[in-house]
Amino acid sequence: MPEHDAAKHGAPKHGALASPVPPPGAAADWTIPQRWEEFTAEDHWVWDTLFARQQSLLQGRAVAEFAQGLDVLSLSRPGIPHFDELNEKLNKRTGWTVVAVPGLVPDDVFFKHLSERRFPAGNFIRAANQLDYLEEPDAFHDVFGHVPLLAQPEVADFMQALGHLGLEALDKGALHRLARLYWYTVEFGLVREGGEMRIYGAGILSSFGESHYSLESAKPHRVDFDLKRVLRTSYRTDTFQQSYFVIDRFQDALDLVTRNDLTALYAELDRLPDLSPCTNDESDLMAA
Ligand code: HBI
Ligand code: FE
After folding, report:
1. What is the CATH number of the domain that holds 235?
2. Residue 30 falls within a domain, yes or no?
3. Is residue 4 part of a domain?
4. Which of helix, strand or coil describes residue 199?
5. Does 237 map to a domain?
6. Per residue in 244-273, pLDDT tens?
7. What is the structure's pLDDT at 77?
8. How many domains does the chain have?
9. Average pLDDT along the chain
10. Is residue 137 lining ligand 1, measured as CB closer than 6 Å?
11. Going by CA atoms, what residue is nearest to atom 4 of ligand 1?
12. Rounded Cα distance, 279 and 51, in Å
């Protein structure tokens, strides 16, 4: 269970407080029909407004593959994307499918979907008078923030690997560690591109404030990705991140999760104290 809850600043609260049984109308895997025709003109206006604002802001800030993903999936067309049309393109590229869910789903359901290349997207969009406030991941965070990079083969493989690792960690009572890896990569990851830092984390890509803060503020630590350190570092869901972890290539992230025995790592790290995202001084790390 994530360390803190109550979301602010556009970073949706991940971490399932979902009840164990699917709500009425949802399948056993919590999926629901998208019923795209039921989205209102205001819902589409919210999507278009957030999309236009983020698309211009992310130029020169997001990793190049993000804009490429928006392009190959035709996500620039107005209105909330119709999942059938979106999945036709996405499935051809990396075999992924976006499925509609009512909201947060239980961790086991979430990671099972990822392990089978299905990305659960919240089938609702935030209110027009709350463009920068989000309780749970909505369609804008999930589809704009997560889906474009699922068109990128290494990211597609990485997300599926996290699905399997999530189910494994659940069995081992180590979900909090895998959730940290998910959080500091998929949600709040930074990557080097041509010597510059760029954004690839969905929690940042879908947040106006954090798209600025993550690259420009002097406050947060931006540290080289280190698997053990990430698995030991807690995170906040109610503030902008205090630490960002930077990878050099998506392939590196994939290699890290496929070439390391995470279960053995969990046992080793259980003998060490957790690290706060606020600290960056070696002494804390040396305590390892
Ligand atoms: N459910 N719909 C949805 N979206 C998420 O991002 C999500 C979830 N359930 C669990 C969950 N995330 C987290 O626990 C993981 O990030 C660890
Ligand atoms: Fe997310």
Report:
1. 1.10.800.10
2. no
3. no
4. strand
5. yes
6. 999 999 999 999 999 889 999 999 999 999
7. 86
8. 1
9. 92
10. yes
11. 104
12. 34
Determine the atom of ligand 1 nearest the C-alpha atom of 12: 6
C-alpha 176 – ligand 1 centre gap (Å): 12
pLDDT reading at 19 higher than 80: no
**Residue 120 Cβ contacting ligand 1 at under 6 Å:** yes
Is 15 domain-assigned? no
Q: Which of 105, 110, 112, 150 to mutate to test the pocket of ligand 1 (most atoms within 8 A of CB)?
A: 110
Question: CB atoms < 10 A from the CB of 145, how many?
Answer: 24
User: Is 141 tagged catalytic?
Assistant: yes
Handedness of CA 13, 17, 21, 24 (dihedral sign): negative
Can you give the pTM of this predicted structure?
0.93
CB 125, CB 39: distance < 8 Å: yes
- CB proximity list for 195: less than 8 A, separation 6 or greater: none
Range of the domain at 201: 36-287
Instruction: Indicate the DSSP class of residue 76.
Output: T
Question: Between 153-172 and 83-94, two packed helices, what is the crossing angle to 10 degrees?
Answer: 90
